[in-house]
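sry for the spam today, last one i promise. struct tokens for design, 253 residues
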């Protein structure tokens, strides 16, 4: 069965952008493959994009690729940023839908079928995007803060900025999305036909979000689980990315 807009076979291409993730990437790819093997997806593939890592990221990924034909590893010759790695993976995708999976294992691959099912059950899978919302899946805070939700160990700064960005987005687009910073998003491949993001860093996620709504596509949010990691454990996003996010939402409004 072909996707209605792309002509590509119906199924899911999981794109894993990775930079210096030798500790996590091998186990993550194995976990993703295990989930997809047990799912009801009509077809699937995994594309690891090594963004010119200086460690053994590509070696760990290629170890898995040798035992699983549906895993491919693509390498950048120089570091170009997460957004560029995502674009490379999407360009290499052979199936009707694409999911971006961060390499650091903060997101649980077992949630992938839920995102896929949300898109399929929407009735318009070629015009629906699924956002895995950490906010919807988190616990409510006690007392007067009961309207807010937070995961254990989630850093206060990024957690608070998530609400700030959602509020800014609501002002600009008159639409509330609970978790714009989520790294778990499943897109129809047709969204990228004849169009590529102009940005190349973490802000590319927000440029794509603006493109989705400006193109009249639908966003559905699905609660997902989340295991935050700290900067000491390798988390790379920082306050400069927060500023870029606010600017990107305004620029592509």
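last one done:
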């Amino acid at each position: 069965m072909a996707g209605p807009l792309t002509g590509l076979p119906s199924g899911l291409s999981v794109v894993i952008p990775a930079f210096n993730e030798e500790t996590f990437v091998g186990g993550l790819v194995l976990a993703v493959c295990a989930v997809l093997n047990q799912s009801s997806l009509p077809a699937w593939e995994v594309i690891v994009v090594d963004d010119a890592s200086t460690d053994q990221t590509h070696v760990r990924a290629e170890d898995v690729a040798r035992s699983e034909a549906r895993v491919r590893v693509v390498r950048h010759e120089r570091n170009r940023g997460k957004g560029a790695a995502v674009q490379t993976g999407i360009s290499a995708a052979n199936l009707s839908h694409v999911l971006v999976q961060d390499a650091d294992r903060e997101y649980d691959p077992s949630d992938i079928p839920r995102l896929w099912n949300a898109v399929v059950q929407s009735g318009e899978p070629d015009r629906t995007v699924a956002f895995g919302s950490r906010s919807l899946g988190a616990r409510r805070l006690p007392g007067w803060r009961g309207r807010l939700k937070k995961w254990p160990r989630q850093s206060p700064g990024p957690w608070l900025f998530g609400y700030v960005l959602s509020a800014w987005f609501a002002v600009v687009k008159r639409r509330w999305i609970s978790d714009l910073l989520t790294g778990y998003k499943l897109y129809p491949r047709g969204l990228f036909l004849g169009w590529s993001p102009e940005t190349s860093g973490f802000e590319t996620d927000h440029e794509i979000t603006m493109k989705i709504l400006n193109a009249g596509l639908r966003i559905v949010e699905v609660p997902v689980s989340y295991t935050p990691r700290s900067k000491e454990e390798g988390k790379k996003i920082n306050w400069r990315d927060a500023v870029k996010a606010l600017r990107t939402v305004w620029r592509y409004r």
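The two ends are 35 Å apart (CA to CA). ok im logging off now
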